[in-house]
Amino acid sequence: MTESYPSFTPFLLANPLLRNAPNLFIERICRHAMATMHRRHRPVFERVAEQEAFALLISPTDLDLQFYLKIDADHPELRPARHTEEETVAAQISGPLPALLELLQGTSDGDALFFSRTLQIEGRTELVIALRNALDGESIDLRSAVSESFGVMGPAAKIALGLAEKVYRQLQHDMNRTADALTSPSAKRLLGLEKRTAEHAITLAGIDKTIQRRKRHSRPAPSGAAKDDFAMPTNL
Predict the structure, then answer these.
(1) Using an 8 Å Cβ cutoff, are 41 and 76 in contact?
(2) Helices (H) and strands (E) in the chain — how many of each?
(3) Residue 16: band (very low, low, confident or very high) from pLDDT cuts 50, 70, 90
(4) Which H/E stretch holds residue 99?
(5) What is the mean pLDDT of the chain?
(6) Is there a contact between 70 and 55 (Cβ–Cβ < 8 Å)?
(7) What is the pLDDT of residues 152-208, one digit of tens each?
(8) Among 113, 122, 177, 200, which is most buried by a count of CB atoms within 10 Å?
């Protein structure tokens, strides 16, 4: 079974920074990362956009930021989405950012992510499936694509990203423990309620059978033919 990706992730802690970060800075990173991916994996874009170019809205559930992703063989685009673009995209993919990143890198089981509702699609599902099929097994390195977007500072950015990943994993571990501690009592109560509800359902079913059985036994026997006072005696 595919690993679970809750929306309670360390990316939630980055939201205050993202809300105050210059939009041009985020756009530059996205633009250069997409240019690097297009240069390294151009056949992927050509296969997906063979019939038509289209745009997707990527909506991380743990980030106060949406991304506009245009799949085009020659001019792909990735940038922060604008509010008016929800009506112009072909489909929208929503889910925790770690799951979305693994899907885009082709390192996860896309079918399992969609069937488990970890990722949700709205719009033209066939285009998202075509993208998923093209990405499966492609092993796109987003870390390198992002670090190269910093130009001469790329090596330093790659080291910083590696350290950030270690901090992220530790934070995710701590947040998972916190979530378990907060939700465990409620989960136990819900499990107890489900058990008692099942027991009550069995009891009610038994009572209903008993009532139906007693109704069948208490029905009066069907009466015979009505007596005719003018009928001839049978013993004459």
Answers:
(1) no
(2) 8, 5
(3) confident
(4) helix 97-105
(5) 76
(6) yes
(7) 666 776 676 666 677 767 776 666 677 677 666 666 677 777 777 887 888 888 888
(8) 113
- The answer to whether residues 139 and 163 belong to one domain is no
Identify the CATH number of the domain in which residue 47 sits: 3.30.1050.10
Say yes or no: 95 and 140 in one domain.
yes
- 33 CA to centre of own chain: 25
Q: How close are the terminal C-alpha atoms of the chain, in Å?
A: 90
Asked if residues 33 and 144 have their Cβ atoms less than 8 Å apart, the reply is no
Q: Residue 53: left if φ>0, alpha if ψ -120 to 50, beta else—which one?
A: beta
pLDDT 10s digits, 67-109: 999 999 889 999 988 877 666 899 999 988 888 887 877 766 6
Residues 128, 133, 137, 140: is their CA dihedral positive or negative? negative
pTM for the full predicted model: 0.62
Helix axes 97-105, 125-135, angle to 10 degrees: 60
User: E-assigned strands of 36-181?
Assistant: 54-60, 67-71, 77-80, 91-95, 120-123
Domain containing 101 equals 10-149
Domain count, the chain: 2
b/e map 203-225, b = 16+ CB within 10 Å: eeeeeeeeeeeeeeeeeeeeeee
